[in-house]
Amino acid sequence: MTTDDSARAHSFGAVAAAYDAGRPTFPADALTWILGPGRLQILDLGAGTGKLAQVAAALGHDVVAVDPSEEMLAVCRKLAGVDTMVGAAESIPLAHASVDAVIVGQAFHWFDHARALPEIARVLRPHGVLGLLWNQSDTVVPWVRRLHRAMIGEDSPAGQDEFDPMPTLLQSDLFSMVETARFRHWHDLDRNGLKQLALSHSRIAVLTESRRESVLEQIDAIYDGTARPPEPLRMPYFTNCYRTRPSDLANYRRTMA
Known about the structure:
The chain is α/β, with parallel strands linked by helices. The chain has a single domain, classed as Rossmann fold (3-Layer(aba) Sandwich). It is built from 12 helices and 7 strands. The protein has helices at 3-9, 16-22, 28-35, 51-58, 70-76, 113-123, 142-152, 166-171, 191-199, 202-205, 209-226, 248-256, and strands at residues 41-45, 62-67, 82-86, 99-105, 124-137, 179-189, 233-244. It has a 7-stranded mixed β-sheet with strand order 3-2-1-4-5-7-6, with helices on both faces. α2 (16-22) packs across α9 and α7 (142-152) runs antiparallel to α11 (209-226). The longest helix is centred in the C-terminal third of the chain and has 18 residues, at 209-226.
């Protein structure tokens, strides 16, 4: 991880309120595809303000949310049915084989994978599941494409920020076959919500105040040219999902630990 990446990764605590107000949730059918039936013990790793943990709890699962940011978890603690712990993906504060599933929403790309994947395999039960989810805005829609470029820069093509975890998972000897699925959903935003969405992004969070204000003026202009109040502005998303299970080697290593 570069110095710039590290600064961005540690920027979220300062914008916890904006993250909770502006970021979309995750579709319940996406999480159901990952987890399957039955009530499970679930770890939401890199949980942030609990967007994904809240969906899992609403589906009836027992959820513990782990995140390194105390500010993020302060928001997450307000959720019903979700326990919280301060901790990192590279050093998970849970016992061996203690959860049926590890789910990661919008955070896996920030992990040190060489250290995090053995930790995830360690806390998973033998037939457990690892589920990774990313919400990706649909930049085929013209106003969404303008918003995306306002937030990441005029010279950055839409989709540049997409992260593909497949190579990392396939190169690991700790997980088996990876399955993928995609789900469609929408997030309703008013003028302030769109601004909070922009403020919640790491690239915006680390800008100087003057540069950040310039970006927010562009965001306001996009809203004014697109929204039709009092109707909400409907932000279209795809949720990209990846599902895999511990390999035989991972299960063997766990018994020897």
